[in-house]
Amino acid sequence: MSKEENKVNRRDFLFTASYTIGAVGLGAVIWPLVHQMNPDRAQQALATTEVDISQVQPGNSITVLWRGKPIFLKRRTPEEIAEARAVNLLDLPDPQKDEDRVKEGKDEWLVMIGVCTHLGCVPLKDKGDFNGWFCPCHGSHYDVSGRIRKGPAPTNMEIPKFEFVDSNIIKIG
Amino acid sequence: MKRSNIKSLLFIVTLLFVSTARLYSAGGEAKPLKVDWSFKGITGKFDRASLQRGFQVYKEVCSSCHSMQYLSYRNLGEVGGPEFSEQEVKAIAASIEITDGPNDQGEMFTRPGRPADKFKSPYPNVKASIAANGGAYPPDMSVLVKARPGGSNYIYSVLVGYEDPPEGVMLDDGVYYNKYMIGNKIKMASPLSDDIVEYSDGTQATIDQMAKDVTTFLTWAAEPELEERHRTGVKVIIYLILLTTLVYLSMKKIWSRVDTEV
Amino acid sequence: MSDHEYTPKSKAGKWFNDRLPLLTLGAHLTDYPTPKNLNYWWTFGGILTFCLLTQIITGIVLAMHYVAHADLAFASVEHIMRDVNYGWLIRYIHSNGASMFFLAVYIHIFRSLFYGSYKSPREVIWIIGLLIYLLMMAAAFMGYVLPWGQMSFWGATVITNLFSAIPLVGESITTWLWGAYSVDNPTLNRFFSLHYLIPFLILGLVVLHIWALHVPGNNNPVGIDIKKPSKDTVPFHPYITIKDAFALLMFMIIFAGFVFFSPNILGHSDNYIPANPLVTPAHIVPEWYLLPFYAILRSVPDKLGGVILMFGAIFILFVLPWLDTSKVRSAVFRPIYRQFYWIFVLDVLILGYMGAMPAEGIYLVLARIGTIYYFAHFIIVMPVVGLLEKTDPIPMSISEPVLTGGADPALARKDNEKI
To answer: What distance separates the 2 farthest-apart alpha carbons in chain C?
Structure first.
């Protein structure tokens, strides 16, 4: 390579290196500016909540707030469970077995996010044609397993991550 | 030549003048003692064990009067702090009764603390705190280290600085003499005495030891981001020096094209 | 500013440029002929632009988390410091960025004072610059109130109380400013709104500032007019862009030193005490960049007199182009003025130091001397020295002093030749 070419190559390398290292720095600067909008540590700390279910009688439900959304915790009677399991999956717009919506051995307890999957209203309990919930906004009917049966909602009410800390406490999230 | 010497001299004198402005102190208090803190300097870090001991001092000695309202129990487990384990944090939180509510009956109730809760204040509000402490407010300690000139050195000095007042200085009831406190008078009696706390790690709880530990803890409480800040700072400045060198060389290369460099 | 020769390379570029000539503007900025002898004091314009953008970006982000209510402000800042991802970093960049902004602006102004950049035909650039400086001080003052610490509250109280010195309407104006009967929540709210607004006003003025500059072109250390383009100029890109980048990086190293290793050293510890209307701090002090004016304010025993003199100290700068009678621009060739320049610098530093001290004893005496000298510099020194001074010979061109090793009197312009 001639001396001239060498010079040019070294110069281009220098400029390219400068631009590249500069771009890396720019990226490093942009990340905190973006990440600060993600949930902060206080929000993350409230990401789980524990609920005392010891006072809920069979057939009743309670509603708690989790991450700003209502959570329905319903303690179903044996009849309600049987009713849920008797449904033909082909009748369901969003087929899902009732067994898959509850924890094994704790079939009584239906824990779901009480937000209609249509446009986000909070359905009313013990209403509707299917012995479950009814959303007054646009007329979606949910059954005793929280599954959509009739109306514009596309999917069943969502089951959040939850677990039984002991037989009296459920931890959500 | 001579003129520029005078100029430089003027500048240096002025800079010295200006930089010493910070050390101005009004009264007769002594300058704070200097401690060789582990967290000082660009690679400073907190002594984990000291932080845990310091928290113990705060909890057992200070928290009965001083709130720390901007801290949450979960902070005690986060990286860069005392780094208690998750179980320890849960236990510390659960040992406190927190007021929560209203419940569905509209009443407030108490429950054991959770990591997400803020540190419980000893008094429901500032006025209650003042009334219970002879008209003086025990300041919240969340940022106390940053709120005093001299910072950690000052806090430490006050804690070890209690002594008898000098000749002729009269003190009202409930007022104590402190060598390093701004104004020399403080309405808090010396809070530390030897072995007032039994350290769980077996360290001898002398006044000096406790003062150092609780000051370390308070420094972390005021600046929990300190270690991350130092770490990031070192990386940033190394990066900037690297990029500056590259850009400097590029600049020299580009300007070499100009026939007369000015 | 007519670069009608520029044609975009692509068809799409040409289509767009015909409708909004941004590409022509870009070419103008790239090719803009800049004196090749600019020294590093000229890099602070670019640095200031960086500071403004940094403050705007970090400020907008902080505003996503800050709460402008007297009961919540202090806590919201602690929330940012402790919980918001990188909140501590963004907050410290913003608070130290304000100091860096003023450091840069003072160097920029003092460059202008030394090299005569305020003189004809650059008077409007200078005046726009002063308006930017005034807005900077307003924005910084209001920004400092937002954390609602002791200094925030009491600094706001002292400065807003100044307006009550105005005869007849002073009290009403002050109450109107406060929105209450003392500095309180309404004051905080409106300061937040205005603090968010002002940087964008500054941005607009900066555009005008640069536009006005591009008419005559940059001044230079030798202070002579140059033809552009010529062998005395270089295109702005890449010559000046790379030099500005280098200077900016050096500046950022200092900035990073403060942010990461001493983020509170330029502030006041009292501002980490929540605001208490019942307890006044022992010494109320503004941030360092406002200290010289604070010293001038307190040097006058009369309240109204102090206010008049403090604002006067800034307003006198506006008429500087007309107070300076010298035909020579750059202090490089003004041996007498140069001495007075450095004394003026010392005077401002002394005033700054006095602003941090209590207004009593020797400090007050020195502040008064400093204040008198400050005005004397503009009202007496500038006109008189300009008229009586025997200036050094001025070179004919920029390259000439370098090539010949000095300004050759034989080659110098005549004393009455316009530079």
So the answer is: 74
